[in-house]
Every structure is written in C-alpha cells, then in structure tokens.
Amino acid sequence: MPVESGSGATARQVKQKRKAHPISIRRTNSSEQERVTSQREMLEGQDSKLPPTIRQTLLELFGQIEREFENLYIENIELRREIETLNDRLTAEGQTVDGGDLSKGQLKAKASHSTSQLSQKLKTTYKASTSKIVSSFKTTTSRAVCQLVKEYIGHRDGIWDVSVARLQPVVLGTASADHTAMLWSIETGKCLLKYVGHAGSVNSIKFHPSEQVALTASGDQTAHIWRYIVQLPTPQPVIDTNQMSGEEEVDFSDKDETDGDAEGSNESPTIRVPSTTLKSHQGVVIAADWLVGGKQVVTASWDRTANLYDVETSELVHSLTGHDQELTHCCTHPTQRLVVTSSRDTTFRLWDFRDPAIHSVNVFQGHTETVTSAVFTVGDNVVSGSDDRTVKVWDLKNMRSPIATIRTDSAVNRISVSVSQRIIALPHDNRQVRLFDMSGVRLARLPRSNRQGHRRMVCCTAWSEDNPICNLFSCGFDRQAIGWNINIPALLQEK
Fold first, then answer.
1. Rounded CA gap, 442 and 421, in Å?
2. pLDDT of 135-163, one tens digit each?
C-alpha cells in the first residue's frame, strides 16, 4: 500500500504458480478413435432433444473426462507398484542394517510415511486434472461480455482508490499517490476538477450519500472533507470496439508509460483548501468512509486505530483500538451503523454503533496473511480479500467460518460488490480483474492485452449500479482508471 511520500511505491511480487507434473501415458491412435467413434454412434442412435452442436460439445467434454480419469487410473497402478517396491526394499534393509532386524512397528512407520507421500502426490494430480475438466466446462458455458469503454488518464503516479458519486451529477473520483484527487466525467473521460489540499499520497476517496461533498484520506496523517461543484461536458458517442469475452485468454505485452499531462488535466479547476480537516492519527490514514446519513465518518490508519468523527464539529467521537498491526481498509454498511476494519494482523473487525450507549466489536479470523479489504453486501454478509490469495464470504450471524471461499493465483486488493447483481470484483497484484458470484463461482475475467487493460498492479474496483455506459471501474499503479461495461447473463447468476 502507499507510503507517506506518495512516490516510489512498487507492486508486490507475485509467486509463481505451482505446476502439475502429469505422467505421460502412451496409447494407440487407432484404439482411441475406435472407442470415440463407437460412443458417438451409440449416442447418435438414441433419441435426443438437444441440438447437434450441443451434443457434439458434450461428447467432446465427456471424452476429455474419460481420458483424464484413465490417466489417473494408470498412474494409480504405477504408484501402487512403487509402494510395493518400496515396501520390499524396506523389508530387505530391515534385515541387514547393523546385522539386526528392524521391529515391525518401525518398518510399518517407514512404509506408512512413504505411502502417505505417494498418496498426497496422487491427490494433487487428481485435483489438477479435475480442475482442468471443470475449467473446460466453465469456458464453454460462461459467455459474460466485458468491454472496455473509457480510460481516465491524467495522474502522475499510481491510483490507489476509485469511487463513484451517489447523486447527480454522477462523476468518477480517483485518489492517487501524486498527492491529488480528481473528479472525472464518466462519459467523456475528461478531468472536471482536481483536489490538491493534501501533503501526502491520497489513499482513498468516498462521496457523501446526499451532498456534493468528498472525503479523502492521506499519507499526511489527515482526512479532508471538501465540497465540489462540477458541470458535465456534452457526452460523445461511445464506439463499440474491443468487445471481448471475460473468459478469453490473451497474451500481454507492456505499453509505454502514460504521460501524466494527458487529457488536459492541468486545465481543470483546482480546489486547494478543505472545508474540514480531521486530525487525530499518528500515522498514515489509509482509508475513510461515511457512516449512513453522512453525519459521521470513520478513518483507518497505520497507527493501528480507526477513528469515528463528527462531521459538523470535527471532534473525535470514538477511537477504535484492538488491531495488532497497521490497518489497511475500512468500510461502512449502506443502511446500518456498522463499520468493518481490516488489518495486517490477518483479521478484520466488525464494530456496531447501532446502540448509542455502547458499541460492540467482533473479530473475524480466517485469513493467513494481510486482510487488504472487507466490504458489506446487501443483507448480512461481509466479503473479505487478502494477500493470502483468497476471498471469503461471511455471514454476520455466524463468524466461526466463511460460507464461501474463493481461491486465486494472486494477492487480492480492494474488492467491491455489486449491490444489484451480487457480483464480487477482485483486483489482483498480477494485473487481472476477476468477477465471481457470492457462492464463489467465477463468472468472467476482464480483458487484458497489449491494447487494453491495466499494465501494472490493479489496486481497487468500484461498481456503478445505475450507469448504462460504465457499470464497473478499476484503477491501478499504471496511473490510469478504466471504465468497463459488464454484461452478465441472468442464467450465470442463478444459484
């Protein structure tokens, strides 16, 4: 995450994926073709209401499944032979070591250990093979369309956070390590206003629920509240190009670095002084958010505390302590006085302010590394993302274990959940953005190629529920934000 100076930060390195090492199996092409031909003839002779193309696809998929399990069966036989050979060798060694016999218990322990290792190898191979089969099914059924619509270019350093205004005029807000926050026209991609009141990296931006007011958190140990007035330019027709499936694999090659003066960002109006400054933290303020109603805000800091402020008086109402390490994010419930904070201590905490007299706290444990963000959904769920490459869905009524776990191949940054579609957008260190439903099923992956997509770590995502042009935004350390049009067929969202 950002440092106080706001420059020189680099993305985390991503570990290489583990690769399966399947055993090569030889078979004759003639027998394989004969078996497939006989299967097709048998199925073609049966009555079916399925279209021929779908039947053909099913035949190919079932053929893949049969071949994978045949490989597993043959490898299982080979592993059993290895076990028998190992047991024989151990028995022979037990009769000759130091002229004495090994006890039956010692021999059994050695054989059991070797068997356990081989069994684990078999399980790993099985999982890799079955995962490949399941992936082939998803590729053929998921036709989610993810189209890049607009790029928002103008920051001079990485963009840590992106947010969408909740009322008219609907604008896009970005927070950057270049010490500025910018407001953009979603339709044209033009910078409408720049806020330069912070003396450090701007780490987050959130819009007031009912007023034209923005809240920003910074590495200068403060949070600022500032009012804005913008006039939207006349929108230009959007060219429907670069349409790609969210599941399509595309090779990637880096583009040239973006010039920070693009899009005429220097010509936009500038706000230099906030209307309110919130000072109480002794470290970087990494995130801030409005409580329901907009009369109070919560901030999260690297000083291991979260603070609750009164907006009108700027006074500190509560200091929320308990985390053992630096906080990484905070989020408020859209309709209730609930706050969730996440931390590098591998936990996130739920703070309940619904009773003015007392506030309770619950600790969620389940991640093994830094919890980078935790956000509310409509209802009684919280979704958390972590550097341990997992995303977990939790029920607030049962904190012992998650109701769903999403495992990925890269660290997860600031996630967001679509209120209307209940879709989770995952920004990754490896420049990918993936979409999942609440049950953990992958729906799509945003396109990334030498022509479009992020070139460096993706830091944050944000949904815009009512915008017909762009309904998902992402930002990254490549100095740009991107607007996407996501079309998820209703069939893919059914449970």
1. 14
2. 434 443 446 789 999 999 999 999 999 99
